[in-house]
Amino acid sequence: MNKEEIKEIFREKGALQEGHFELSSGYHSDKYVQCAQVLQYPDSTQKLAQELVKSAAEFIDIEEIDVVVGPAVGGIILAYSVALEMGVRAVFSERKHDDMEFRRGQKPFSGEKALVVDDVMTTGGSLQELVDLVAVHGAETVGLAVLVDRSEEKELKLARDIPLASVFQLDLEVYSPKKCPMCSRNQPIDKPGSKTMK
């Protein structure tokens, strides 16, 4: 698929939204990508997973991946779909008191090579947490893959030495709450990010 076809999937499924949003980073924006709108459709999800694997294959050796790792909630379906595409295992992390951990008896094993995936990347903070968690279990993250990259270079909290693949780049204007034009108009705010829903 080309970039316009990928964008059309997001548009058609209602994932590209407009309004006043507080992002999980704390910044505000007038646009938001709600990947859950796409990920509820298995056929669209699998098409995007195929594209994500193709994109990742440009940077890393897909054949060496043993496990795909994603964070709850947004990365669970995607990690499973990417793992299905690659024919490997999928595991996911969960938050407990703000910290990520592997639970339910599933985790990457020592010596495994991992592909860490997520639905959306803003600052890369969650991806970096997962990279660190994978390392705690003796595995190595050899690649990162996100459906939507809406990051800005100056805001990235991600280590730069791991290759990153994405299928959709979205340039969002973001504002600090003090400089947000929607706040100054008293426009109601939506907080769709998973970190704000505790």
TrEMBL record:
One of its GO terms (molecular function) is orotate phosphoribosyltransferase activity. It is an enzyme of class 2 (transferase). Keywords: Glycosyltransferase, Magnesium, Pyrimidine biosynthesis, Transferase. The keyword Transmembrane does not apply. Residues 52-161 form the Phosphoribosyltransferase domain. Its EC number is 2.4.2.10. It catalyses: orotidine 5'-phosphate + diphosphate = orotate + 5-phospho-alpha-D-ribose 1-diphosphate. Catalyzes the transfer of a ribosyl phosphate group from 5-phosphoribose 1-diphosphate to orotate, leading to the formation of orotidine monophosphate (OMP). PANTHER family: OROTATE PHOSPHORIBOSYLTRANSFERASE (PTHR19278), URIDINE 5'-MONOPHOSPHATE SYNTHASE (PTHR19278:SF9). This is Orotate phosphoribosyltransferase. The gene is pyrE.
